[in-house]
Amino acid sequence: MVKRIGVLTSGGDAPGMNAAIRAIARKVIFDGNEIYGIRNGYKGLAEGEIKQLSINDVSDTLSKGGTMLYTARYPEFKEKAGQEKAIAQLERFGIDSLIVIGGDGSYHGAEALSKAGFPTVGIPGTIDNDIPGTDFTIGFDTACNTALDAVDKLRDTATSHMRTFIVEVMGRDAGDIALWTGLGSGAEQIIVPEAEFDMDKIVSEIDTGRDRGKKHTIIILAEGVMRGAEFEEKLNARGDYHARVTVLGHVQRGGSPSARDRVLASVFGYTAVELLNQGKSGVCVGIQGKDIVYNELTDVLAGGSNHQSYMSLYDINKEISY
Ligand SMILES: Nc1ncnc2c1ncn2[C@@H]1O[C@H](COP(=O)(O)OP(=O)(O)OP(=O)(O)O)[C@@H](O)[C@H]1O
Ligand SMILES: O=P(O)(O)OC[C@H]1O[C@](O)(CO)[C@@H](O)[C@@H]1O
Ligand SMILES: [Mg+2]
Asked: Measuring CA to CA, how many Å separate 306 from each of 133, 191, 309?
């Protein structure tokens, strides 16, 4: 019997989501089944914005940023009523299983559906890289590359003016984007929620650098710690550091996905369909080392704040960028 599989993207978009949607659609059709694209995340699901996808519908999407299915934040999905509306729509379209591409919040929705008896599999799609059970999420690599490109440019002007730059990067409560961007750009300071910071120490390190003839200081600040403007105030309270704040913001969420994100998304998409084919539900795909793995959504969500950040990068940076 032909199976009908639905796919949606939810939460913040992430470069590589299209590559995942394409892989899912192609694999489902290759298997002789039908694929249905759900627009606008859980909101579109509850409202029945559902359309069958053909092979051609996903052509020329692999290299594009954003999500061709659009996405939304839909708090109503936390409530039973929102979830029941969604299940009713899935039944109306005869869809028998669902793939959710999104972050931790979206995983909660996927878990709720699978607990309600609707077969659902998750794919980690978020620039934040804040999901336990996977080394990387789709979009994280591209976001770091975008941030790195910006910091390289900021360094030019920071040097010319002998300024200190505070660069606020995204990541919600996780410091991964800051850690990778910081080490990758040779930033003198990386401030993340996972580690305490000491403003006196930061100021003394900036002073030591200046005395040595250093022409700039780059501070990468994870948004989960505080806003750039607040950090600037604290820094300026200790002296004139010619500080400037750059908030990279949503630019980090756009752009053509990197090679790594395209490959990761394609493999994750393929694997999610395979998991559904094997009758699995309530699980999510991930990568650990070179292995493509899957974990129970409940375990991953219980991990919550136990997401393993790359704190080793923080320690290395302290000894090579100063
Ligand atoms: N506890 C929950 N139960 C059911 N659904 C949820 C829950 N939390 C979040 N969702 C659904 O998932 C959507 C996306 O969640 P959220 O805004 O946290 O983004 P995310 O998936 O974590 O992605 P990102 O952090 O990258 O933006 C929410 O708008 C809501 O529809
Ligand atoms: O796009 P919004 O709703 O402003 O959300 C921004 C948040 O989404 C993320 O970009 C993740 O998608 C976080 O890094 C950030 O905190
Ligand atoms: Mg999230």
From this structure: 10, 19, 9
Q: Indicate which CATH number applies to the domain containing 184.
A: 3.40.50.460
Confidence of residue 310 (pLDDT cuts 50, 70, 90): confident
Cβ–ligand 1 distance for 92 under 6 Å, the answer: no
Integer angstrom CA distances of residue 119 from 25, 152, 216, 276, 281: 17, 45, 54, 8, 5
Task: Give the pLDDT of residue 305.
Answer: 56
* Partner residues linked to 221 by β-bridges: 168, 191
**Is ligand 1 within 6 A of the CB of residue 182?**
no
Task: Specify the residue with its C-alpha closest to ligand 2, atom 5.
Answer: 12
CATH for 8: 3.40.50.450
User: Which ligand approaches the C-alpha of residue 102 most closely?
Assistant: 1
Distance 172 CA to ligand 2 centre (A): 7
The verdict on whether residue 17 carries a ligand-binding annotation is no
Single out the catalytic residue among 128, 130, 141, 176: 128
Q: Which of 226, 254, 282 is the last residue of a domain?
A: 254
84-130 residue pLDDT tens: 999 999 999 999 999 999 999 999 999 999 999 999 999 999 999 99
128 is catalytic: yes
Model confidence, pTM? 0.97
Asked if the structure places residue 314 within a domain, the reply is no
